[in-house]
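REVIEWER CHECKLIST
Item 1: Sequence provided? yes
Item 2: Single chain? yes
Item 3: Sequence as submitted:
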Amino acid sequence: FDYRGQREPLLRDYFFRAAKHFSPVIAVDTSDGRFYVSTSDQAVGRLTFIHRAPFGVASMTKTFDVLKAHSGDAGVIEGKTIIDVGANVGTTTIPALKTFGMGSSIAFEPAPANVRLLRQNVEANRLDERVATFELALSDHDGDVAFDLSDSNSGDHRVRLDAVAKTPDAYGEADRDVITVRARRFDSVAASEGVDLEQVGLAWIDAQGHEAQILSGAQALLGKVPLAMEYWPYGLQRSKGLDMLHSLMGDHYSEVIDLGRSDTGSGSHGSRVRDVADLARVYGGLGYTNLLLLP
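Item 4: Structure as written out by the authors:
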């Protein structure tokens, strides 16, 4: 019995859930590389293991297809650097280099457990010399920030702002463990590390609602390189960044393309957004989408 090809994913899901009792980490080989994932991670890690594909790779395929179509240059990102913000365990950085032809990655990830697996995955795929990893939260200032941890989703750790402590917590945010992590502006990192901004071909940001603050601290990138990012009104509102993000998008990008959710197919079509404020109405509640912003 293999209804619509679901037999193997169901068996792999069962195996993944059982593996938690025997090992904190499990490996999965995919066409985009090898990934070590946490058996406690019921989102990014579990889906990567079940489908033998890095989480969000369908969205990456669509992003690169649209970027190439709009630039008219099939090699627009060939050999370029990707800035990966919220790099998780490498599910964007590693395919970008191994599958999509980018030359190097500067990866930022503040969650300690994610960083350990990110570095392990970079090494497992022999990309040590092409990936620079920073255990940092990017933001609009240099210092420390409070950071809350999801106990079941490695992709839903978030910078926590005092101003939003009493806002609705649809995901049980009020009960999460909170740690302190280092934060820096991208501009500070670029200056101190000598980042070659001329080589940056794409910025990829998935920061669970902290995107506006990140872009505010990234004037070196803002409006200068294409930007792929998650757009999640719930998280943006909690971070008091929704209106700020709309302003930054309107002021610095000539075109905004709605690519759809991370779990959608890899078709090459996106929808041009004529009024960025409409996005909050379309994806209200707990909805989200992925956007490609073109300078």
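Item 5: Key structural point noted by reviewer: The first helix runs from residue 7 to 19.
Item 6: Recommendation: ____
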